[in-house]
Write a structure and sequence with these properties.
With about 290 residues, the chain is α+β, with helices and mostly antiparallel strands. It is built from seven helices and twelve strands. A twelve-stranded antiparallel sheet has the order 1-2-4-5-6-3-9-12-11-10-8-7, covered by helices on one side.
Length: about 290
């Protein structure tokens, strides 16, 4: 995909009936359905079944099977509850009549209440940083295999600006913390459901990488299989994804071939707009010399 309109078209599902929708797939270069796509499409499906005055405040998802990029995905929405303030939906995604993903989402009326948040990390602003496309050129002669993967994997729809040097963090062990600015490369309509769907899509990029950072020197000598196992996203405040957002990620734990990461997403004014958590598989496949792909 090369344009925002292509991504929005991908996330806009075909309606079969009031609770069933069909989605196409992004032809990901790694050969499996991108987790962010399924997160965003499932949220789109859920949004079609709730009143317009309800906005998503959280979604919790499990990736059950790897998706086949050549087979459309069917999303079935279960109406769990329609309350006075909250609305709950469950979405199950199917391929070949097998569930590959399920998600629960909760929607709420806008209501007044107390307000506090943690502070945004004190990092360089995006205007002073190189974007990911420029940074990966430093990989070309040092880690050529990783360079080729990143060159094909990096999306053209979003612009990413890592605060720290990517090459150093991919070849040397470092603490499990990462800060990345991101935004869409084009302006987005101020439509809350669409903003939420695009953030769900983008939130699956980069979040698992800090779980590998304390172990890069070991993992780079192995063939490692990475995949998302579950994903949770909480929406706290309004935002515009076409303005710079800071993804502040840490990984408290890695064990039993799994890595766990948390992310706080801030706008450029320091407002905490969303929180993310994900656990992913980090399985060593053999004793070969092929580096990991995260």
């Amino acid at each position: 995909m090369k344009s925002l309109s292509e991504l929005i078209e991908l996330l806009t599902l075909e309606k079969i009936n009031d609770h069933t929708f069909i989605g196409k797939n992004y032809k990901a270069p790694w050969g499996r359905v991108f987790g962010g796509q399924v997160l965003a499409q499932s949220l789109y499906a859920a949004y079609q079944t709730v009143p317009e005055d309800r906005i998503a405040h959280s979604m919790h998802a499990y990736f059950i099977l790897g998706g086949n990029i050549d087979i459309p995905i069917k999303y079935e929405v279960d109406v769990i509850r329609d309350g006075g303030s909250f609305t709950t939906r469950r979405v199950v995604a199917f391929q070949n009549e097998k569930a590959i993903f399920n998600m629960s989402a909760s929607f709420q009326l806008k209501q007044k209440g107390v307000d506090h948040q943690i502070s945004m990390p004190n990092v360089f602003p995006p205007e002073k940083l190189m974007d990911s496309h420029a940074q990966i050129e430093e990989f070309k002669d040092v880690i050529p295999d990783t360079y080729k993967r990143y060159k094909s994997f990096l999306p053209k729809i979003f612009e990413f600006k890592p605060v720290d040097n990517m090459l150093t963090k991919l070849v040397k062990n470092s603490p499990p913390f990462d800060n990345i600015w991101f935004k869409t490369c084009e302006d987005v309509a101020t439509n809350t459901p669409l903003q939420h769907q695009l953030l769900a899509y983008a939130s699956d990029y980069n979040i698992l990488r800090p779980a590998s950072m304390p172990h890069r020197e070991f993992l780079n000598t192995k063939e490692v299989f990475y995949t998302s196992l579950d994903h949770a996203l909480w929406f706290h405040r309004d935002f515009d994804i076409s303005d710079w957002l800071l993804y502040a990620i840490d990984s408290p734990s890695a064990s039993n071939s799994r890595g766990f990461s948390r992310g706080s997403i801030f706008d450029s004014k320091g407002n905490l707009i969303a929180s993310v958590a994900q656990e992913g598989l980090m399985r060593i496949l053999n004793n070969g010399s092929k580096p990991g792909t995260i």
